[in-house]
Design brief:
The radius of gyration is 29 Å and the shape is globular. By secondary structure, the chain is mainly α. About 30% of the residues are buried. Helices cover about 80% and strands about 0% of the residues. The longest helix has about 30 residues.
Amino acid sequence: MPATQDAARKGPAARPRPWPAVLAWALLALAVLLFATFPWLDHLIRQAGRPDLGTLGPFGIPPTVAALAAGTVGAVLASRRPRHPVGWLLLAQGMVMAISGACVGYIIYGLVVRPGALPAANIAARIYPVTIAAVLAAVGFVLLLTPTGSPPSARWRWWARVSSVAVAATLLAATIAPGSLDPLLQFVSGPMDPQVYGGALRVANQVALLVGVLTVLAGAASLVVRFRHARGIERQQLQWVALAAALTGLSILAAAVLIAVGEVNLGAWASVFGVAFLPLATGAAILRYRLYDVDRIVSRTLGYGLLTVLLGLGYTGVVLGLGRLLPDSSTLAVAAATLAMAAIFQPARRRIQQAVDRRFNRRRHDAARLIEGFGARLRDQVDLDGLTAELLEVVDQTMQPTQASLWLRPPAGPAAR
């Protein structure tokens, strides 16, 4: 009876509380409702005869995707691991980005197209630049607290306290500081252009932006420090974040190149992939979802990326070369290039993947070599005891289990016959 009573007392306490999950998904739903105001405000602006000030465009896609990715991952983390601060930070990041997007159309319609038609439009114009600095600060704290939920060391805890106070003070100052602002210039030049603001408001916004950028840089530095000292599961978690950061950088670089050559729409879509990588990788790392696949993903990404580049260069070279030799047979040149690339695809893929595995997925490369060598020796092995020992050794070196044993079925005795 006492044991039963103890179990009954512990039972309700062991159940997870439902309110964190309810709160997390309610905040995400609120962010989605804010996104629903984007087309409504754009319709009002166009209906008022100012299509040139429309807010829906290619460059509105990346921040929307980033906000939805951060908010969704944050809601999942906050509902499953409510004590982990990164989930709530990502959820706050998505919420603030949704507010920032809603501010754009609200300010333009309430201060430029129809002045006075919407309440508190001037307050929204002050909040707009503050949201940018707040998002940067949230990203910095996410980097600082990933994946354990606490800073790497006591020194970083001190930095976290100081930066929290600095972020709160600068955001508050940027909201209430006196000064003027030009809402039309804010829309055209962006919320962080110093020329938009005047007086103390300009200084407060620049300081808030500087603190946000410093928070991101400090968070990235803490991630590097944490990675250098991490071992085991934590190192695998950080590898996911590092992979996402690399893919984010490549996506943003590709977007910048496309925009520079005039492909604005393609550049916007390329940046969409970049802004979604980091929240998704952070959620996977904290939830420890398929951690040990990261080496395989990295090697496969590099392998197929290099293969694509080499085949693309080869295809272009064959087409151009045959096009000069056979100027009247462009179709023949394309067909020859296609056949040549198809013929070398599999050999090139194997060689490139082997080279990448040797450098970036050494464990899999070494395991494949061990298994291949064991298979070659197995054909000539007749000693059962030696074979048993060698098999256990190969399993230990390739799979790295905590313990391994081999059971051999005993031969049938006379009674079994």
